[in-house]
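ugh ok fine here u go
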Amino acid sequence: MIARLIRWCAFNRALVILLTAFLTFGGIWATYHATVDAIPDLSDVQVVLRTEYAGQAPQIVEDQVTYPLTTAMLAVPYAKVVRGYSMFGTSFVYIIFEDGTDLYWARSRVLEQLSSVVSKLPKGANPELGPDATGVGWVYEYALVTGKYCAAHPDGAWHDPNADKWYESPDKAPEAARQRLVHHRIFEDGRVVYFDEQSNERYDTPDDAPPEVRPRLKRVQMGKSYDKCPLDGTPLVRSKQNLADLRSQQDWYLRYALTAVDGVSEVAPIGGFVKQYQIVVDPVKLLGLNIPLSKVKTAIQRSNIDVGGRLMEMSEMEYMLRGVGYLGSLTDREIAQAREAGQSVEELRNEKVLAGLRTVSLGANEEGKPIYLQDVAEVRTGPDIRRGVADWNGGGETVGGVIIMRFGENARQTIDNVRAKLSDLERGLPPGVAIKTAYDRSDLIQRAVGTLTHTLVEEMVVVSLVILLFLLHARSALVAVVVLPIGVLGSFVAMKLFGINANIMSLGGIALAIGVMVDSAIIMVENAHKHLDHEAERLRQGGAPRSRVEIIAEAAAETGPTLFFSLLIITVSFLPIFVLGEQSGRLFKPLAFTKTFAVGFGALLAVTIIPVLMVYLINERTIPERVAPKRRLTITLAGILGPALLLALIPLPVLSHYRWAMVLGWIVLAAIVLLPQRIHSEEKHPLSRYLQHAYNPAFRFAMAHPWFVTGSMVALLVSTAWPLSHLGSEFMPPLEEGDLLYMPTTDPGISVDKVRELLQQTDALIKQFPEVESVFGKAGRAQTATDPAPPSMLETTIVLRRDKSRWRQVPVPRFYDPLPELMKKPFRWAWPDLRPITVDELIYGYNLPGGPHVKGLNEVMQIPGLTNAWTMPIKTRIDMLSTGIKTPVGIKVLGPDLTTLSDISARISQVVRTDEGTGQYTVSAFPEKTVGGNYLDVNINREEIARYGLNVADVQDVIMSATGGMTISETVEALQRYPINVRYPHELRDSLTALRQTLVPTPTGAHIPLAQLATLSIHKGPPMIKSENAVLTSWVYVDIVGIDVGTYVKNAQRAVQSQVKLPPGYSIVWSGQYEYMEAARKRLQVAVPLAAISIILLLYLGTRSWLRVGIVVLAIPFSLIGASWLLYLLGYNLSLAVWVGVIALAGLDAETGLVMLLYLDSSVERFRSMGRMKSDSDLWHAIHDGAVQRIRPKMMTVMVVFVGLVPLLWGTGAGADTMRRLAAPMIGGLASSFIMELVVYPVIFYQARRIGLHREQRRLARGSDLATA
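structure:
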């Protein structure tokens, strides 16, 4: 069927070209409309329930909210894990679903289940569904920063750093300078510090440093200081915006405008103060006026309401009746007067709300005089209770926001939309307030996609050069190379149809397939050369001429079916990747899909457009010789220069950026197509002759010493035991995101004020490192269901400088070091003797050659009470929402009692820190303190309260509202809403003694101290309660360095099993990267053997010979020689990326083995057809002809794949680590298996064919004897 398709295409060339053009234009469209992200979305399908239960302790939240929700959610279809978090005032329930579950279907099922349990929850606990986002949804973060500004230019100024000139707007700057202008809306205070690079310590003055350090201090200007406006010289004005003002801007101005941006699911605010109207009630005054607290609350609620009175008709007009009763309601006249007086509407409304609250009527005294709220309480504004703090560059508190992208959206497009919207919104902020980017995923996207795009271009160029070198005919090389761009564009069409993003993994799949895509075309083109050589020889011997189209169609049809079949085997070899699940499947399935697409389109193009192009281009002249020489020259020059001039002169804006590249490209392409070129026969090809000369002695030696060669190969195979036994194991190599996330853990009972102090201290220390661009710190959680962080958890996003020349440099020993300085300069250009420090060195420090140790971030950040953990933003979000673990290794202890869980966790932490197999590699092992929170319990005496006619709820109402503070209403101030809170004065609730004196009103009007009704006591309890599938759990976070995850966990499991005894009902689960690794290993143990069986069956169906199947499969184990040794020499661990490379290698081995057998079989059959298969000598020469004389196409096939993979091995940048580990086993294995195919295949093939030949000769001899008899 394939042969018939090839012939049909060769004779229907116009239609095939038209269809290929449609595919090309479709690919260009799909490329421009591709959804782009840095990595595939690795998050589980998850639905989050967040329930605010204000003022309640974690144990109450767990018992009354989290436990009922988690037990109910266990019944949701396809839910595999239900994880609960109970913390002060908030419950989070994460429902993790099986792979393949539709997110919106899952959300609807959760809502159905929620309806059955919501009635069982306490009053005031209202579960809300989290955003339709995933773990990688945090795509952009920003901070609101205040500073000095120009009073006459509140929108800021534009600075040209090259010319050091300032402009009021970009339009005022020269056009050439506009691209480099930097906008300064505010001017932050700069200062000079003195930095010691060896210790990474920073000093305000040299005198602050120790005397021995002062000589090596480096003066560093931390930002430039401005006192006057650079535009007009007037003094700068400092912003008066406080944290409450900034939070209001975030909540009511930025938040909803950004939520409306296409692709945004939620905007989560961080830090600052939510403004609150506080009614600080004096209980003594209430007692004196005999007013219960409940009356105060009711009076406020009834004084803050608008009502409608339907419609009225007057004078033939319709009027809507409205009772204006909101606190702070303003008339149009009041607004106009405020603006005339220069007062902001917000200030006026705030004053009127306070005035309205103060005059809320609580009744009248005995004299009939009204009692106002101000008579019994202080009315003021203040901050609401907060569970999160933000900091910018260690300079003090700020307010920030997190853009959470909707599931399935285009990350790059969403970020572009957000940045454009923020640019518009910034102009509406108060003067002196600017928006600073704290984290931008698009930078990683650009770098990751740029790395792979650059590698793809490198691969195409290198492959094209190799093809040209082997064929020495540019048009023939063009025929083969045209498969690459069209195949890649076809892959983008398939990606668009299947909904696959363009990211480092999907583009990596195309990169892996580059060499394989072009293999079929190469062999077909080379075979066409061979057939044309045979045809020329036949014509010289007097044969009748044949149609050139027929010759090329025959050449293509001869090799096409085998090549198509080999590409099918390569596709089947990737089947194990498609059965991977969870994070490993989500990571590698895009790669498997795109590699399959690329190989599929390569195979399709090889049997369709390649025969057509071979007809047109594989000749010495494209312009027939019957055309006169002058006319040929005219046509050639016109074809080369005419379109080039049009491209250079047509004034189309779309061509502006690529005009000269397109001109040069057309000239090269037209020259290749139109200029005459000689076709070199294989016998006269210089490279082919050299390869035959080099290969011939090895072939003869192998054929003469078959047992020695086979034994040597087996010995080499046995030698792989050494490198394999010394390779570590890990789930995946780290993706170098380019930014860091510092996530220390501190005491769970720490106060917000103390954690704020620690946050600013750590951020300031981090910002002093010259490699750090900006630092955005967060303590506690953002206001979103996707962030279940307790107040004790710090998260600092560290954006590193992209310009590595600004990083500290480390000397690199070079061979030219002994040379004089003048002679070193040319060598430095190729081999620099300085390199920037690595990210690991930035974190953990480094040693200067022959010098002292330079401290890294981890050593500088040794702050009492903090346990360090260093990771990366995307990785952490995925891990924490998938397994809950933020470190490479996590240990989950499950059981029924929190105290016992805490003891077991502490013991495990001690074991992994001190055991000889794990201690030296453990950076930190932090056990969660499940009972580390501070509780003040009020145990109510039921008998005592009964004497006063009280019940439990009456006493608890005082505890909640007066002592804890209760939000009873909220103001409506235009679009803004602020809570109204009632509480007792701080001095009456800031100590245990004061709380005991809190007065509780009774039905008789008497007020009884709380100490007479209840016992107050302080004790330890859970600061946060975690559960998994409704079972309580405690986690141990383990950060490691200098060892692979697999080896560490094995050692740790052995140590914990021998040293930690678990009580009945308790269990341990090893999580983090190890959990992913084990899940992938179990699936591959089943999938890989099934794929191997499938390949063997396909080989048999294609060859109908178990002997050929055995010969082809023999290459796979021998490829492990090169693969394992190269991995060992490069120092790579066995990871899922490496195993994917090994799986891809198996398909390549099958392809190269089939190609080798194709030429050996063809040569034997040709000798047989010529009557030269009568002896062992004839067989030997036939195999020699198929192996040695046809070395060029085999070498060309392997070299194209080989050099196509090499750019992946030397690649750098985001995503390069993963690509290197994919390519390394393929490069090493391909080299060793190809050597085996060249040396061992002919030996085995000869021995097997020799036996068959002898059997055939004996059969013929018996037949001859019978005929004679």
